[in-house]
């Protein structure tokens, strides 16, 4: 028969260096570990063994957060990037596939950008301070579903924040370079 010991009923042993020679009238002295009944020490040891055994045998998935639903699907339409990258591509994740040139790395790029409680496709905050640099005329639109949620996001490269947002999703979005200066 297994006995469950509540942690609040256990008292830690008092180190000999801090034990008082005369008990305080306000608090009775804590019993030493030798004064504790043997059954209590055994029960504590058994309870700790059960907890440690259950943690060590739990599968790794038990520690993971909810996995993204299977069948994430995105449609990416890219314009004015150049270099033959313009067009519409489909990306399927878990398992990866579709007409995108590299669907596995495209899915990994979105996974990297995803943060708990945040939208991986969210626009830059309105109050963000962005550099006034121009990254070229490239635009993109991403639609579909990711992590069970609908996606409809647009991208461009009109300032530093937009460029950083685009670059975070490379290779889902094609790598684009800034236009050359005359």
Description:
- The chain is of the alpha+beta class.
- Helices cover 21% and strands 17% of the residues.
- The protein has three helices and four strands.
- The chain has helices spanning 38-57, 103-113, 160-167; strands at 72-79, 87-93, 139-146, 149-156.
- Strands 2-1-3-4 form a four-stranded antiparallel beta sheet, covered by helices on one side.
- The longest helix is centred in the N-terminal third of the chain and has 20 residues, at 38-57.
- The protein starts with 37 loop residues before the first helix and ends in a 15-residue tail after the last helix.
General form: globular
Number of helices: 3
Number of E-type strands: 4
Strand content: 15-25%
Strand numbers in spatial order across the main sheet: 2-1-3-4
- List unreliable stretches of 5+ residues: 50-69
Concise account of the structure shown:
The chain has 182 residues and is of the alpha+beta class. Helix content is 21%, strand content 17%. It has a four-stranded antiparallel beta sheet with strand order 2-1-3-4, covered by helices on one side.
Architecture blueprint of SSEs:
Elements (H helix, E strand, L loop, with lengths): L37 H20 L14 E8 L7 E7 L9 H11 L25 E8 L2 E8 L3 H8 L15
Antiparallel strand pairs: 1-2, 1-3, 3-4
Defining traits:
single chain; 182 residues; alpha+beta; four-stranded antiparallel β-sheet; 3 helices; globular
